[in-house]
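Re: that backbone. Tokens:
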């Protein structure tokens, strides 16, 4: 009997084995009914059988073996996709999800071979097609599970960032009230340190919320207006100078730097680039900021001295908000955090970009935004 026919004729036996194995995957399975344990097993098996019965060219077989059918565009509402989402929702981990398919594969082949008294050359092709179909189902389930996991993580990040704002606000308010009293010098210095640290935390939480919002598909709220880039640079520098009184900053600007942009957002991007320069630059060298206009584009260069970032590592940090890079002569790895990612999102929202270059002991991140109006005001998502 053809393997595809065997699967269709023995669905209940195979499903019982699936259910028995799924029930052993505790603790997630402890409170699940038979229906929940079987989940989308029946349509998955029928889809596998149908796939095996569909004519397939050698090219199609190769494409499937390379996993090209498992990309996001292929996934609509297949049984395997929904199975991955539901297994995530009930608490299965990724290892348990894959283990279900491993057990299913073993069960089907064992039952089929047991009833096949004699084997022939065609059986090898049957098993090959079966394994391809199962691998395809695994890929769909794992991808959808991973997507759900990412959404859950980003939602948690957003909730965490939101809930941290209230206690942090209380800290800042208390520090402000305390600073208004006549206190000895040591107490004044302590309060100033609390205020600086709290403001840094406030900035980090803002970035965290923006990051989570972007990952969840929300547009960054923008409120552009006629502004001047020099003022935005001065504000960002003042913030960094207060947070890092021991560091030296140099600011140069040239040309008409008036434009149409969102001042707080541009300030956020500049603060993030400056923080990056302070954290990863040579402490004995100044952080340089240069603002200029070029071909109807406003540009701000933030430059620090220190170990150059290798090209491959620079590409990684430009594309991955949590990338870790290994710097020459350094120990371990270093991450640029969310700051660069948020700066990129701000630039993109203005129709601009962030560029980077690092060589001969100098690293430069540049913010580019159009001078003329290219952004559309958007309401903050609720």
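Recovered sequence:
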């Amino acid at each position: 009997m053809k393997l595809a026919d065997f699967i269709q004729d023995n669905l209940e036996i195979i499903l019982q084995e699936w259910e028995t194995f799924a029930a052993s995957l505790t603790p997630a399975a402890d409170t699940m009914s038979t229906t929940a344990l079987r989940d989308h097993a029946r349509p998955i098996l029928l889809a596998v059988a149908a796939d095996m019965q569909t004519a397939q060219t050698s090219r199609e077989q190769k494409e499937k073996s390379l996993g090209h059918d498992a990309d996001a565009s292929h996934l609509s509402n297949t049984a395997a996709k929904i199975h991955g989402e539901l297994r995530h929702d009930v608490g299965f981990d990724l290892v348990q999800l894959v283990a279900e398919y491993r057990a299913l594969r073993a069960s089907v082949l064992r039952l089929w071979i047991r009833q096949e008294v004699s084997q022939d050359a065609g059986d090898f092709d049957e098993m090959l097609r079966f394994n391809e179909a199962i691998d395809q189902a695994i890929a769909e389930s794992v991808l959808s599970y991973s997507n759900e996991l990412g959404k859950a993580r980003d939602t948690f990040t957003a909730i965490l960032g939101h809930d941290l704002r209230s206690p942090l606000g209380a800290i800042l308010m208390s520090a402000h009230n305390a600073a208004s009293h006549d206190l000895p010098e040591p107490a004044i210095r302590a309060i100033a340190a609390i205020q600086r640290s709290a403001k840094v935390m406030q900035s980090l939480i803002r970035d965290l919320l923006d990051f989570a919002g972007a990952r969840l598909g929300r547009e960054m709220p923008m409120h552009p207006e006629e502004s001047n880039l020099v003022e935005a640079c001065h504000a960002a520098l003042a913030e960094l100078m207060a947070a890092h009184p021991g560091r030296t900053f140099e600011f140069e600007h040239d040309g008409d730097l008036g434009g149409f942009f969102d001042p707080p957002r541009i300030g956020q991007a500049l603060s993030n680039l400056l923080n990056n320069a302070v954290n990863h630059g040579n402490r004995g060298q100044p952080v340089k900021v240069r603002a200029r206009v070029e071909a109807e584009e406003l540009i701000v260069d933030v430059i620090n001295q220190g170990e150059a970032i290798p090209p491959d590592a620079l590409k990684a940090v430009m594309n991955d908000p949590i990338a870790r890079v290994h710097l020459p002569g350094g120990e371990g790895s270093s991450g640029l955090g969310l700051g660069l990612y948020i700066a990129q999102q701000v630039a993109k929202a203005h129709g601009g970009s962030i560029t980077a270059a690092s060589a001969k002991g100098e690293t430069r991140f540049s913010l580019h935004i159009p001078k003329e109006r290219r952004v559309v005001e958007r309401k903050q998502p609720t």
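Residues 303 and 364 are 4 Å apart (CA to CA). Confidence is low (pLDDT under 50) at residues 70-75, 328-336, 376-382.
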